[in-house]
Design a protein that fits this description.
Largest sheet: 2 strands, antiparallel
Shape: elongated
Number of strands: 2
Number of helices: 4
Strand content: 5-15%
Radius of gyration: 18 Å
Strand order of the largest sheet: 1-2
Order of helices and strands: EEHHHH
């Protein structure tokens, strides 16, 4: 994930701040690592190769986000201050299934 990152709002686009760009790059690195470390993906790729095919795995990820409304004092709580339960509650069942398919564990369910 390289280049400029943009946030598109209603009728606007602006360059994201460096901290957010860094976090997005970290997310890309984490996703790449999860895919590279996945025994399931590796096994399926090997089965495709065993059939006599060359295989190239190219994934495209779209990271979408919107700014949360700020608290009454005008400042959002830092991520670390948000209880883990609240953060996990925001993960949809589809997101959980996708993360599991990449062997990413994010809670104590399993």
């Amino acid at each position: 994930m390289t280049g400029r990152f943009y946030h598109a709002g209603i009728g606007e686009a602006r360059v994201l701040d460096e901290q957010l760009q860094k976090l997005i790059r970290e997310l890309g690195d984490a996703i790449n690592h999860a895919i590279e470390a996945s025994d399931v993906i590796d096994e399926v790729l090997e089965r495709i190769r065993a059939c006599g095919h060359e295989v190239f795995l190219v994934l495209e990820a779209t990271v979408a986000f919107k700014e949360k409304e700020t608290e009454s004092d005008g400042e959002a709580a830092p991520f670390e201050a948000i209880p883990v339960e609240q953060r996990l509650a925001e993960i949809s069942p589809e997101d959980r299934q996708f993360l599991k398919s990449l062997n990413i564990k994010f809670d104590n369910e399993e």
